[in-house]
Structures are given as C-alpha cells and as structure tokens.
Amino acid sequence: MQAYLFVHFREKTTPDGEQVYFGLSRDGFHWEAVNGGRPVLWAYYGDKGVRDFTIVRSKKDGKFYIFATDLSLSYGMRSQYHGSWEEIGRNGSKCFSVWESENLTDWSEQRLVKLGDDDFGCLWAPDILYDGKNEDYLLHWSSSHRSNDYGNKAIYYARTKDFQTFSRPEVLYRKADCGVIDSAVYEEDGRYYMFVKSERNPEKIILLAAEQAAGPYERVEAFDESMKDVESGLYEAPTAVRLEDGRWCLFLDYYGVPGAGQGYVPFVADSLKSGRFVRSDEAFHFPYGFKHGTILTITMEEYERMKAFDWSHQGYW
C-alpha cells in the first residue's frame, strides 16, 4: 500500500507563505497538513522565499531532493522588483533552491544551484523526470531568454545523474504563438506526457506527448475537450500522480481569486494516453489551498514516520 506527500507553499503575503510546506495523504484524495500547517523548511539564502516545488526520490541512492523557484513575491515584488513582472522575468533569480534528505524528516540546509548563464531570465517552476533510456534525470523549467529580448517563455531542461552537476540547458518545448510555463512530465507505458500552461491560444493547460523524454512533443487534442469548461487564464501549475489503482489524478492550481481562496482543484483520468480527465472536486479534501507543488509516492512506513515526527523545531535554532 502506498501513501502520498505533497510539497507546496501557501498564498500569503507574510514571510511564512513562500516557504516549504508538506501535506500527507493515505489515498491521494484526502489530505492533511504537516506541522499544523506551518512551514517545515525555510529559505535563508537567495530571495529568502521559495515557491513552485518539485520533489524526487533518486534511483541511484534513494535520497530525496526538493527543488524550488528561488523567488520572494510577497516582499521582493514590492522592493527589489518594483512591482514589475517584467523585471522579475529579466532579473529574477538564476538559481534554484535545493534541499536533500535521506529519510524525509531530516533535511539539509538550503543550497542554491545556478543553471545556464546570464542570458536566462528568472528560472521558474522546476520539475524532474527520470529518463530510463539514458538512466539520468531531466530537470526542466520555464524561462525567458535574451535571444528573444526576454519575451515569450519556453521550457528548458538540463540532465543530471546526481543533482550536483548539470548539463548545459537546451530547449525542451517552445510554442510558436505564445509563451509556455509550468511544465510537468510523466511516463506511461513507455511514452512521455507533458502538461504545460499555454499563455494564449488557449490560455489554459495543454497536454503534449512524445516518444522520448527530451521530445519532440506534440499536442494531445483529446485533452482540450477535458479543459473546455475550465475558465481561461485562471489555472496554472499542473501536477499529477498515479494512484495505486492505476488512475491518474491531475491537480491544477486555481488563482482566480485573491488570498486563501486559491489552491489546487482535482481532475481524474483512467490514463494519460486517453487525455480524458473529469473534474472531481467533491471526491477530494484539502485543509487549505495547497499552492504550486508536486506529489511524491511514499511508503506507509514513511507516511507514519512523517506523521509521528516532531516538526515544531523547524525555523528555530
């Protein structure tokens, strides 16, 4: 029997919002907060705020790695970025924040990993995919770039085997008519499926598929039908998990209202190949609005250990 860990942040304009939060579930439908809904890890370096998380269990040594966007909007937007999304896009952090652990309870201090060069704009929304054919990982993210004067964002990737050294970034996916952000890629039956937010035409989540982890990716048009009743311009940050019964749960981050009303809404499908997802709000429960994160499948022993752990020392010496 498996359980689930959701790594996320909270939509708050106080320093504790853009930090690392954990949620746990025994079934993928009913979620509970860890540490009483308080942060379990804090960012002390870089922008001192983090968001847009991914977590992975290394096949090499079993260690866990959290990667996050190194960015404070609750305070940095007002001060160092002067209220400007364009300034963030050009001059936001060129690093990801990283934590690592051997047991999901004892975590290293935050470190910063720079990818690419200064031609990149801010590095947004990392996600990690294991490429079984190459026996390495694709760390992928969205960025603007000097090559198009920091215009439409594309999805980039770098390869790594150890989460310490990374290859030179390359383009994973670029949409011809607009920018794309928030990539999430999964393997099913030897094919790779990428959820990504299209910024226009449509201004919604789209689904792509490829035979190789690094592409090329092409649209799965059946998924567009699943999104027909989803309002344009109000959802981002797709993340998905495969349940024990083989079904897939897709979560989309709703940001159509200010503050606490934001958070993930769920969709369920029998397979990624079908592209047919059904919105299923009533089947799920969250204690509050989980924001832009990733779900990791864990064992019941890991679930029970995390439940029993005393997280109250987090944020204190």
Automatic annotation (TrEMBL):
Transmembrane segment boundaries: none
Keywords, ordered alphabetically: Glycosidase, Hydrolase
GO molecular function: hydrolase activity, hydrolyzing O-glycosyl compounds
Superkingdom field: Bacteria
The protein's annotated pathway: Glycan metabolism; L-arabinan degradation
Record-linked InterPro entries: GH43_arabinanases (IPR050727), Glyco_hydro_43 (IPR006710), Glyco_hydro_beta-prop_sf (IPR023296)
GO term, biological process aspect, one: carbohydrate metabolic process
Family the entry assigns: Belongs to the glycosyl hydrolase 43 family.
Designated name of the protein: Glycoside hydrolase family 43 protein
Organism the protein comes from: Candidatus Eisenbergiella merdavium
